[in-house]
Amino acid sequence: MALPRILVLVLAGGAGGRLELLTDRRAKPAVPFAGVYRLIDFPLSNCLHSGIADVWVSIQFHPTSISQHLANGRPWDLDRSTGGLLTLPPFQGTDRGGWNTGTADSLWRQADLIRAFAPDALVVASSDAVYKLDYREVADAHLGSGAEVTMVTTEVAADDAPRYGIVEVGNGGRVTGYAYKPDEPATTTATNEVFVFSPTETLDRLEALARDAGEDGLEDLGSQLLPAQTDDGLARAFPLEGYWRDVGTIPAYWEAHREFIQEEPPLDLDDPSWAIRTRGGRHSAARLLRGAVVEDSLVSGGTRVGGEVRGSVLSPGVVIERGATVVDSVLLPGAHVRAGATVTRAVLDDRVEIGESATVGGDGEITLVGRRAVVDAGAQLAAGARFPEPDDD
């Protein structure tokens, strides 16, 4: 018996504004994570280990940054003559062309392609979370349920619940209530932005919703589509029991890195049975110079450490000079902290330079320094600062 034909659509086109300076010049899915990875590596690695070879990636903002990382899909075994990786940029020339205005709108714009592909199940996944999940297992459960949509769910903290689509689940896993980013969530059970749809029924429903929306257009999946499917009793929940972390804000991004420097991290990213794959460059081994102190940290290849590093993540090419101190921070590729400087509870983007004896951050909110910024020698950036300061526009 042939396996069901499964298509995965990775939504990688969001602006990522909640990640502030980190997405000024890169797509959100291209944001580095845990030293050597990018956020999009997680859904693509899930596709690999799920045995799914038909993967489309919808791109929009800063497309070059994500396209360079994807290359031809080789790290995820998607460089194939038939099927494999397909990127979907915005286009013109049909009534579906133009800039998408949300996740549901993005799905509507690709409807003709999806119908032509004719999958048995359509997996739609975001690319701003860290997790491992067998998409084929979810798709198989969906195909046997009679549902129009299966929502993968996870439990979140009560004070964080208003950020998500919140569901109420009844007997047999049927979703009895759905609210998109509610002010007063009924539960703490949230969709984790992985959905399995019955393609024909969902796209037909989406067409009707688009006609009703008129010039206002479709927005996100949670705005109209998922509530309608829930109201008709056609939504099911699939609970994800393992680790899942949305890293779409600066505090969440920083907190997730704190979890991965623990002695027992929440996910083994090198697990041979489910390793996270990435398109990495070739880097020499990390160099720890005489007198260097490194504790409770992730240190990537190509780094050079002469100072003190505690509770931090160093991406490839980072340099910490002798006499410099980095504590509880995340340094992205090529960041350079010069002698005598101190960096505390901060995120430094690509190729940031911290001048000699400068002080960045401190106790309190996370400090963020944007790509290629130079903090002058002796300068002080207070805890919670954004440098350079975002434009008011």
From TrEMBL:
CDD domains, A to Z: ADP_Glucose_PP, LbH_G1P_AT_C
GO biological process: glycogen biosynthetic process
Domain of life the protein comes from: Bacteria
Family under the similarity heading: Belongs to the bacterial/plant glucose-1-phosphate adenylyltransferase family.
InterPro entries in alphabetical order: ADP-Glc_PPase, GlmU/GlgC-like_hexapep, NTP_transferase_dom, Nucleotide-diphossugar_trans, Trimer_LpxA-like_sf
Keywords: Glycogen biosynthesis, Nucleotidyltransferase, Transferase
Pfam family, one: NTP_transferase
GO MF term (any one): glucose-1-phosphate adenylyltransferase activity
The protein's name: Glucose-1-phosphate adenylyltransferase
Domain (Nucleotidyl transferase): residue spans on this chain: 9-260
Residues of the Glucose-1-phosphate adenylyltransferase/Bifunctional protein GlmU-like C-terminal hexapeptide domain: 292-365
